[in-house]
Amino acid sequence: MKKRTSILGGAAAIAATFVVFVIPFIFIILMAFKDRQQSALRDFSLPTGFHFWENVVEVVKTRNWMMITAFINSSIITVVSVTLLVIFAAMVGYVLARRKTRWNGLIEFLVLAGLMVPPAVVPTIWLLQGLQLFGTLHGMILIEVAYNLPFSIILYRAFVATIPRDLDEAAIIDGARPLDVFFRIVLPLLWPVTVTNIVVQSVGIFNDFTNPLYYLPGNANATVQLTLYNFQSQFSTAYNLLFTNILLITIPPLLVFMFFNRQIVAGMTAGAVKG
């Protein structure tokens, strides 16, 4: 009976995954291969001709090669933001796990509040304008770091708690300074959770739509998600170009998840397994 229930549950999960993820992706691919007239029907019919390459060229050339600029901007924001997230979150998680003070409860509460409390857009814009960072890439990087730091801290804190304190004490006895203990002893041991954090945060920041929409106006600062506006308007939409654009900006995160899927699962569960 249990075996039958397990098989039915697995089949239901596969069917749900196929409906939620595979069918929409197939629809995107079909639309990207159609011309504008056939794509306007928005159905699952096979394309009457091979128009994918024409659509790709048109998408890339639209609005003075905005897609190229968007990919560069998104790559810069993603790489710098993730680098800062790894460094800051690992250091904070290490301190929270190793040093027990009366402030730990308050700090952990603030970290959790960063996950639960929604961001205040208008005050954040005022702050960025006051710092002359509104509409700049480095301002956007600071926003991404601030919004994603709580999750990364929780991830690292849980993993650091599984590392024996004896390693720290042995390094200190050998004359290592606090920074040497962290960067030479502890940080290399955090590699599984670091890979998980890098992949998850990279995909999230690269696919971020709302934050660049609010804090990064201007065509020169466009990110890949905002290029979707190039092919839809109030009165008409070029669905073939829109779905070609969606396919192009979906491929990089999809490849990342395909190649690092096992590392993501291992890093997320490592703390629980070791604990």
TrEMBL record:
GO terms for cellular component: plasma membrane. It is found in: Cell membrane. The keyword Membrane applies. InterPro entries: MetI-like, MetI-like_sf. Keywords: Cell membrane, Membrane, Transmembrane, Transmembrane helix, Transport. Belongs to the binding-protein-dependent transport system permease family. This is ABC transporter permease subunit. Residues 71-260 form the ABC transmembrane type-1 domain. The chain crosses the membrane at residues 7-33, 70-97, 109-128, 140-160, 181-206, 238-260. GO terms for biological process: transmembrane transport. It is a multi-pass membrane protein. The lineage of its organism: Bacteria, Pseudomonadati, Pseudomonadota, Alphaproteobacteria, Hyphomicrobiales. Its main location: membrane.
